Amino acid sequence: MTKANLKFAVVTGIVVTSYITFTLVAVNVGFVQNFVFVWLRSWLIAFLLAVPSLLFVAPFIRHKLNS
Known about the structure:
elongated
């Protein structure tokens, strides 16, 4: 794992999980009083799942597709 791969995974994880969780919380919960708290909690969970997936699962899938 290189620094470039780590940076890519972190930045991609932040961007993608931010707008997906924002959209899903807005659709499913609505803009309630504690929207920001619910969204940030959901984002953190998604981010913690996405980054390891980008680092470990994505290379495996890329390898299998290129074989």
